[in-house]
Design goal:
This protein has 132 residues and is an alpha+beta fold. The protein has one domain. The chain is built from 4 helices and 6 strands.
Length: 132
């Protein structure tokens, strides 16, 4: 599996589990993903994704709508500095479950990526991406 496809698939697993970034379907994995070259997601490693996950959990639990939390990958062991923000946007209830739209921003090597998934609070207290 090419490095860029492996990195994207790896990122999507962490993102789904942590209310974070991108969901990649089998069709997307098989597609030409060259447009993702040199974007922040291609530089992110497991520990970077964990830092983003941790920031997302904190922001979803503590920040008001529109209030941002800064995050970075310092201490994650990646030679590429990555930073960004996590901003909960719209809080709402759906079928008795608390959900929030969240804006995730990552910056690396002069490039910026933004994702806007919806996360809902699971029974275990963790925020997880809502399936679209």
């Amino acid at each position: 599996m090419p490095i860029r496809d492996r990195a994207l698939a790896h990122a999507s697993v962490r993102t789904i589990a942590a209310a974070a970034l991108v969901t990649v379907s089998g069709a997307a994995s098989a597609a030409n993903l060259g447009f993702l070259n040199n974007t922040p997601i291609t530089y992110m490693k497991q520990r970077d994704l964990q830092a983003l996950n941790d920031a997302a959990q904190i922001a979803l639990n503590t920040k008001q709508d529109g209030e941002s939390l800064d995050w970075d990958n310092k201490g994650a062991g990646n030679t590429v500095p990555i930073n960004g923000t996590v901003t909960p946007e719209n809080s709402f209830e759906e079928n008795g479950v608390k959900c929030r739209k969240i804006t995730l921003v990552a910056n690396a090597k002069g490039q910026t990526q933004t994702w806007t998934p919806v996360a809902c609070k699971a029974g275990d207290g963790k925020w997880k991406l809502k399936k679209q």
